[in-house]
Amino acid sequence: MTHLAEYVARINQQLNHDSLQMKCLTDSTVVENDQAIQIHKTVKIFEFSDGTRLQQTIENDSEAMLVEACIESWIAYQVIDNSNPMIQPQKIHFDNHCREKHWIQYFLRSNN
To answer: Taking a C-beta distance cutoff of 8 angstroms, is the pair 20, 48 a contact?
Structure first.
């Protein structure tokens, strides 16, 4: 695989790719208080059988707003440790899960 959307789809179980196995190496959640708002930050590192390592970061807060009928979140994916320089893009950010899902579907369709 060479597009980041394929790996993100595999993480989100939107793509069943039997030849590419994946495991979660780390999973940590931190809750911070910023005035009256709680911020939840989850960081996961995934390793794929082709040697690619991705970091997924998801942040949301107790005051999350609906944006385009989706709850606002801050979502980031990044290839780490230069594990696979062939993947493009090397990182991506979203402000809600709906945009993330649309991005995945768009690039999976264009690659087929």
So the answer is: yes
Q: How many CB atoms lie within 10 A of CB 94?
A: 19
Straight-line distance from the first to the last Cα atom of the chain, in angstroms, rounded to the nearest whole number = 12
Residue 7 burial (10 A CB sphere; 0-12, 13-18, 19+): buried
Q: Name the pTM for this structure.
A: 0.84
For residue 105, what pLDDT is reported?
A: 92
Q: Which helix (H) or strand (E) holds 106?
A: helix 97-111
Task: Report yes or no: 96 and 71 within 8 Å, Cβ to Cβ.
Answer: yes
Prior bond of 85 cis (ω within 30°): no
Question: Residue 20: CB partners within 8 Å, gap ≥ 6?
Answer: 1, 10, 48, 49, 50
* Res 11 pLDDT > 80: yes
pLDDT over 60 (residue 112):
no
Extract the tokens encoding 37.
Answer: 């708002």
